[in-house]
Amino acid sequence: MRTVDFSPLFRSAIGFDRLFDLAEAAQRAGEETYPPYNIERLDENRFQISVALAGFSPDEVVLTVEQNVLTLEGHKSEKEGKTFLHRGISARNFKRQFTLADHVEVKGASFENGLLVIDLQREIPEAMKPRRIAINGAAPSNVTQIESKAA
């Protein structure tokens, strides 16, 4: 697979660093296939990520959030003395990252039956929500002005 080098664009694109980082991450995302996951939209502001982690226990998985990046890491501890005739369940270490949009927060995570479910919610601050501004100085449409003569 051919890779694209974005470094020449960095010198002429001020303030777009995050855009190029996202493009590079999207390019690398095609290479990562483990562990499999689903991203589901529950409603306009709620999302859910489900990650299949067969063979992992909750203490072998670490979930962290830092600067709009959700990182999921798994470290499988190998038990010595096991001899496999066939090994179909993957037991390798992994690191998967999800870039979160602004104001998306992790509300919780649960691990059940080999499936890690991460609940996300977008919470836009009141200061950033659209609001109606009253316009001063305009005469209300239902008020009539009575003419008067100057003295």
Automatic annotation (TrEMBL):
- One Pfam entry name: HSP20
Q: Which domain of life is it from?
A: Bacteria
User: Which SUPFAM superfamilies does this one have?
Assistant: HSP20-like chaperones
The record's Gene3D superfamilies line, in alphabetical order, gives: 2.60.40.790
Annotated ranges, domain SHSP? 28-138
- Keyword terms of this UniProt record: Stress response
**Family membership:** Belongs to the small heat shock protein (HSP20) family.
Stated name of the protein: Heat-shock protein
